[in-house]
């Protein structure tokens, strides 16, 4: 799988972000172990607290399709005034890191934060969520 393809899917998914309150639009694209890509975007709510991040939107959408094993996620986020070239890398929040942990091996899951199709940084989930708590701990 080409990383650029995953980044491109995240940038495209960002167009569907519903963020009238923060005006901060995020797109995420998850590469599942079966080779498919599942995307998500942040969906805000007038209550604010009911807002869901793009990464969780993508992760839960994949889970709803029966896909419970992820190998990579690309994320693209920035203010609505920013279009193709984002000013910063959007890192997943702590809750989203924990949700990704549920469906991946943290040493293997690639987390790609992108400003554009040719400008991105790559990490493992383990780097972003060290010493994590996962399904094995409660078996
Ligand atoms: N947001 C995400 O979609 N992903 C993150 O990891 C951090 C924050 C969204 C939630 C909210 O709609 C907006 O960005 C501002 O916090």
Query: How many structural domains in the coordinates?
Result: 1
Q: Write the CATH architecture name.
A: 3-Layer(aba) Sandwich
Tell me the quaternary state: single chain
Total helical segments: 4
Strand content: 25-35%
- Per CATH, what is the topology? Cytidine Deaminase, domain 2
Write out the CATH superfamily name. Cytidine Deaminase, domain 2
Class from secondary-structure proportions: alpha+beta
List the defining traits of the structure above.
Cytidine Deaminase, domain 2; binds tetrahydrodeoxyuridine; 25% helix; 4 helices; 139 residues; alpha+beta
Concise synopsis of the structure shown:
With 139 residues, the chain is of the alpha+beta class.
Task: Please characterize this protein's 3D structure.
This protein has 139 residues and is α+β, with helices and mostly antiparallel strands. It has a single domain (3-137), classed as 3-Layer(aba) Sandwich (Cytidine Deaminase, domain 2), CATH 3.40.140. Helices cover 25% and strands 27% of the residues. It is built from 4 helices and 5 strands. The protein has helices spanning 3-13, 54-64, 94-102, 125-128, and strands at residues 24-32, 37-41, 70-79, 110-116, 119-124. A 5-stranded mixed beta sheet has the order 2-1-3-4-5. The site of tetrahydrodeoxyuridine has 13 residues, from strand 1 and helix 2.
Topology overview:
Elements: H1 3-13, E1 24-32, E2 37-41, H2 54-64, E3 70-79, H3 94-102, E4 110-116, E5 119-124, H4 125-128
Parallel strand pairs: 3-4
Antiparallel strand pairs: 1-2, 1-3, 4-5
Bound molecules: tetrahydrodeoxyuridine (THU).
């Amino acid at each position: 799988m080409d990383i650029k393809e995953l980044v491109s899917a995240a940038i495209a998914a960002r167009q569907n972000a519903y963020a009238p309150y923060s005006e901060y639009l995020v797109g995420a694209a998850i590469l599942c172990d079966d080779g498919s890509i599942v995307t998500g975007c942040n969906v805000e709510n007038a209550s604010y607290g009911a807002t869901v991040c793009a990464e969780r939107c993508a992760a839960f959408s994949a889970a709803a399709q029966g896909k419970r094993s992820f190998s990579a996620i690309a994320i693209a986020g920035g203010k609505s005034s920013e279009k193709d070239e984002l000013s910063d890398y959007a890192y997943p929040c702590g809750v989203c890191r924990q949700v990704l942990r549920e469906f991946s091996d943290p040493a293997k899951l690639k987390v790609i934060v992108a400003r554009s199709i040719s400008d991105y940084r790559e990490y493992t989930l383990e780097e972003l969520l060290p010493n994590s708590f996962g399904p094995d701990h409660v078996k």
